[in-house]
Amino acid sequence: MSAIVLGMAFTFNACGGNDANNPENPQVNNEYFTVAVSPVEPVANQQVKMHITITAREDVYRFVLTDFTKKEAEDEGCLTLEGLLEKYPNITTYLHTNLGKPLEYDDTKNSETEYVLVLFALDDKKQPIADSWIVITFKTPSTEALLNGAINGLFTVDLNQQVRFSKGNLRYKPASGVWEFAEKQYDFVGKGNAHISPNYDGWIDLFGWGTGDNPTLSTTENSDYATFTNWGNNPISNGGDKAHQWRTLTQSEWDHLLRVRANAKELFGFGTVDGVNGLIILPDNWTLPTGLNFIPSTKKGLDYHGYYYYNDYENNFSHNAFTAKQWAQQMQPAGAVFLPAAGYREGTEVSLVGSAGYYWLSTPKKEGYSSAGEFNSSALTLDYNYSVYCGRSVRLVQDVK
User: Fold this and answer.
1) Which of 100, 106, 130, 353 has the most CB within a 10 Å radius?
2) How does pLDDT run across 160-217, given as a tens digit for each residue?
3) Contact (Cβ atoms closer than 8 angstroms) between residue 89 and residue 139
4) Beta strand 321-322 with 268-273: parallel, antiparallel or unpaired?
5) Which of 157, 144, 393, 114 is nearest to 264 (CA)?
6) What is the CB neighbour count within 10 angstroms for residue 293?
7) Within 13 Å, how many C-alpha atoms sit on residue 79's CB side?
8) What is the residue-wise DSSP string for 166-202?
9) CA 42 to chain centre
10) Which residues face 9 on adjacent strands?
């Protein structure tokens, strides 16, 4: 697709049209189009691939899709539609043969480059329709971050620190010594954790506290877990495969994420993905993908009570529901995180699979206890003491520098 310039990247007022400036998750619609842009996880040594989904109004004969970098736009200045067609007579025009249905178009971009996407409609005489412009500015994410198994959304966890979450819960195969992230955010092992042992040839994902150097430790003695070794110290096969690339959140960061950061109470909610119960956490610069609904649980009766959120007599998991396709094609590309209710392990007994989630934090408490984030159908805990011998889920993060 040829790069064609139309206006300055962030000032289209002189040109008219509809400007949607949200680099993290560009989504926009007007009376002619609905457009969403999201990154596709790249293959090694390839550029970032942006996925553009367009739904056009049924009476739109055809449309023009143009793309250019922010620098190109600034160099050219603002053009009228007539001037654009005169200057670029060979402009690429896309017939919309399946009217009223989404058109999916993949375009390869350089990593971490700012782009401007312009879309406008043409009538049956191939003339621009007035006020049909859509202008979207976006920045392609880091190729390295996506290749390393990170979700694209940015999450503030301290005054001066943002992180990206891994694309799935951490799991380990004892027989081969392989660490990896689950393929999907809502995947978990569940009852299979009962087989935990040094020679087990299946996956486990409920770990005792700080067992990055001894993941199959399953005793019920707190004293056996006195030293914390971060799981992110290990090379993770689909997470960059290098040591010390990931880490576990602290208790204060968990609290900041869900209570302190700007609009924190608007940026999480309980729900289901493909029928799996869990907690949804949204990135700082969140824009809801077109055609979907999301309700923060704090708008459904979930109130803060000192160190936990609570919603009496309410099944929080009913607040939101997404299909596997909606999550894979819209919510996750927009940066959303899902923590499944994967239960917990005590020795070789696994309980509350599908009804509660327990996620280790790196902050120790009093002897034999540590912090973990816990949630179930009525509550979300931000700070509590848990026995370190219990097996709990691990979702790692990567610092944004």
Assistant:
1) 353
2) 899 999 999 999 999 999 999 999 999 999 999 999 999 999 999 999 999 999 999 9
3) no
4) parallel
5) 157
6) 8
7) 17
8) BSS-EEEETTTTEEEE-SSTT---GGGGGG-STT--S
9) 15
10) none
* Residue 218 · residue 195 · CB < 8 Å: no
Q: For residue 298, what are the CA distances in angstroms to 258, 302, 334, 337?
A: 11, 4, 21, 17
DSSP output for 332-395: TTTT-EEEE--BEEETTEEE-TTT-EEEEEEEE-STTEEEEEEE-SSEEESS-EEETTSBBB--
- Residues 177-189 have pLDDT tens digits of 999 999 999 999 9
| The token pair that represents 284 in the structure block | 């700082």
- pLDDT tens for each residue of 41-79: 655 556 677 777 777 777 776 665 655 565 555 555 434
The Cα 162–Cα 339 span in angstroms is 18
Q: Retrieve residue 25's tokens.
A: 């998750």
Q: CB neighbours of 355 closer than 8 A, spacing ≥ 6?
A: 277, 341, 343, 376, 377
d(CA 45, CA 249): 30
Structure-token pair, residue 364: 């120790």
Question: Two tokens at 260?
Answer: 């302190």
Q: 19-142 in CATH: which number?
A: 2.60.40
Contact 363, 250 (CB under 8 A): yes
Within 8 A by CB and 6+ apart from 299, the residues are none
Give the 3-state secondary structure of residue 134: strand
**How would residue 327 be classed by pLDDT, with cut points 50, 70 and 90?**
very high
Give the start-to-end residue ranges of the domains of the chain: 19-142, 148-400
Residue 379 CB-half CA count within 13 A: 13
Tokens for 228, please give them: 């914390």
Considering only CA atoms, which of 297, 300, 298, 294 is closest in space to residue 334? 294
Comparing C-alpha atoms, which of 336, 344, 331, 334 is closest to residue 373?
344
